[in-house]
Design goal:
Distance between the termini: 29 Å
Helix content: 55-70%
Low-confidence stretches: 1-14, 195-222, 435-470
Order of helices and strands: HHHHHHHHHHHHHHHHH
Structural class: mainly alpha
Number of strands: 0
Radius of gyration: 27 Å
Length: about 475
Amino acid sequence: MNTTTSSATSFTGSRGLRYPAPDVARGFMLLLIALANVGSWVAGPEGRATSTADRTWAFMSALFIDQRAYPLFALLFGFGLATMVNRRMASGIDAYCQQLTGGFRAPSAAELDQAREQAAVDARRLVRRRGLWMVLFGLIHGAFFPSEIIGTYGIVAVVFAGWFALKYHKRQLAVCALVLVSQFVPVVLAMLFGPGGEAAASGAAVPAPAAAAPTGAGESMASALPWFVTNVFGWFFTALSAAFTTMIIPAAFLGARLADTDLIAHPERHRGLLTVAGIGGLALGALGALHQLLVPLTSAQPWAADSALIMVLGLAGGCGWLAVLALYAGGPTADNRLTGLKRLLSNVGRRSMTAYLSQTAMFAGIFVIAPRLTGRSVSLGEAASAAVAVMVWLTTVVLCAVLERLGMPGPFEVLLRAAVARSERSRTNPFPQQVPDQRTAQLPGQPTSAPVPPAPWGAQVPVAPVPAGA
């Protein structure tokens, strides 16, 4: 008799040993995200020379933050998706083997393959549902902040759900190579065809702006639309552009690959390798931005490859940050307890969506709502803007610490988890429960013996021989 399957409330499996490195890295990543995003909200001072503090901060930000925060975000996103897939695969294979064998024998190789194949289908559907909900969350968030990134990662999850679930590593590598080639082909065109190609090169390597400034008839049309409609249009094109023309896809695939190793789960076992990766990655990322930074300070001429180098080597910088943060977080402890700054970062990392959306709310309050209520615009330099970003991030740290103290998860994590779980459609079970024959000995005049209870998965249950004449 066919049955239907339903999902559990949690799509990440039962709570057990938790690895601190991903959570700590997410918590720190949100500081980098705040520092990178604050420039989208605040207008710089017009007609006033920048201070030494502003120039120094802009230089350091270009070396270690710009085009580093979002690759780090993508690495952790891919790692999280692959971890979710691995847990769903493990639980799915076990459940389907139970159904195929009834728990009375070990599954055959063919049955194990069947169970693995169906578990992969379930994992693919899970990743795709999660991605679709992230796109919806991103759409709503994009109405307020068109440069938001949740929808972009949702698009990646939807498009490549099967590749994450089935671990198509060769296909992933091919796509990564294609993205890299797409960054440098415009550079080659610039070298071959001169200024026109150079303009194409510089434009191809930079993500589309959140909302291009319209002119002429376009300006009047845009002004007639509500602000949130204009923002949604800007979000749509920004999300698509960022998903397929930046290093987000390669970073997500690399993060998924890391989930199949213990580099992040047990960084204490790989201190030497992670130290080299951390120093080397951050150095490469800084090197990629160095030439463009030196152009206005020296007589050097800009390169057509500057923007592409910043973007491609920005992924190396993101890897460097992940290695450093994994080393700092260390491996899991027996009681899953963290202390000090690690605990605070982990609190934020386990509520990363709530913290990220809270940043938007606070930036909007500071730079949009407050000026309109007071009638005074906010104009800050680079250093002051960075200070505001740090304060916003610290506020999310306090918020997440309070939620941790109360034993509460992030509200948006709860909402996403519930949406993903409850949107799973019931479907016919491909493997009806197998009920073994209950053949028991029965002597004349005696009642039939009670059936043997099911054995644990993989156990061998001996069957007594049937007496002659039974």
